[in-house]
Design goal:
39% helix, single chain, globular, 261 residues, six-stranded parallel β-sheet, alpha/beta
């Protein structure tokens, strides 16, 4: 059935066979990646704005990426890039596939990320393990460690982004990402609502993503408690991972905020 659906997509949108430069964002949950995806996907040069939940093993994965995206979205005539993000270790990414594309890494501090993960799952999937702060913290620690390892062995040049820079230093951040991608039309802090905006399994399902612009104010999550020991370990791993990613010889551009000790 999937093969038949792919064939229908290819026949309906033959433009998908043109060359697109793949853009990959490697990060973790609740790191402003849905916001960044919408800002990218609203640019005339970029296809894609949400996570496809696939791995990237060979050139066939890049074809599959386009087939999945264009099954729900008509091609843009001026598009040169096709975007996806991977936020979980169960989706493998062979970064050598992106030698003709662009790669970005992003991290967000645990003090904001872990409570946000817990809050998300309590609202959309109350029986999920990540409704417990300890489980959410374990995901976070494992993922930032994995991202550091991936960055250290990355075969292509990449940009590193402090995720909160997108909201706290928006103008500079969007200019830096636009320059890194080589966009003719720079990214705007306003974005379009897309067919899957705000839906579950397609990124952020909270109310803020439907605003259509970068929101500077973020939720405090004061009602969600995380033990001091758990948070201290997560903070230690975040700082170590961040340092290793920035220190990678392939990290050619950074967008950094001051990180409190």
């Amino acid at each position: 059935m999937q093969a038949l659906n792919h064939l229908r997509t290819a026949l309906r949108h033959p433009m998908l066979f043109r060359h697109y430069q793949p853009v990959m964002l490697l990060s973790h949950m609740r790191a402003n990646t849905s916001l960044l995806g919408h800002l990218l996907g609203s640019n005339a040069e970029i296809e894609g704005y949400y996570e496809l939940h696939i791995g990237y093993y060979s050139w066939k994965s890049l074809v599959r990426q386009k087939l999945l995206h264009f099954a729900r979205h008509p091609p843009k005539r001026a598009a040169r890039f096709v975007f996806d993000k991977v936020l979980h270790d169960d989706h493998y990414v062979d970064l050598s596939l992106f030698k003709q594309g662009k790669v970005m890494f992003a991290l967000r501090p645990p003090e904001k990320t872990i409570p946000s993960i817990v809050s998300l799952y309590r609202s959309v999937e109350p029986n999920h393990p990540y409704t417990d702060s300890g489980n959410a913290a374990r995901y976070y620690v494992q993922r930032v460690q994995s991202l550091a390892r991936i960055a250290q062995s990355c075969p292509v040049d990449f940009l590193y982004l402090d995720a909160d820079a997108l909201r706290e230093d928006t103008t500079h951040t969007l200019a830096a990402v636009s320059q890194f991608l080589g966009l003719a039309q720079p990214l705007s802090e306003h974005y379009e609502q897309q067919p899957l905006t705000g839906t579950e399994k397609a990124g952020d399902s909270s109310e803020s993503i439907v605003l259509g612009k970068v929101e500077r104010v973020t939720r405090s999550y004061a009602d969600i408690q995380v033990s001091e020991d758990v948070m201290a370990l997560a903070r230690e791993q975040f700082e170590e991972a961040r340092g290793r990613i920035i220190g990678s010889p392939r990290c050619i551009r950074t967008v950094l905020l001051h990180v409190e000790n």
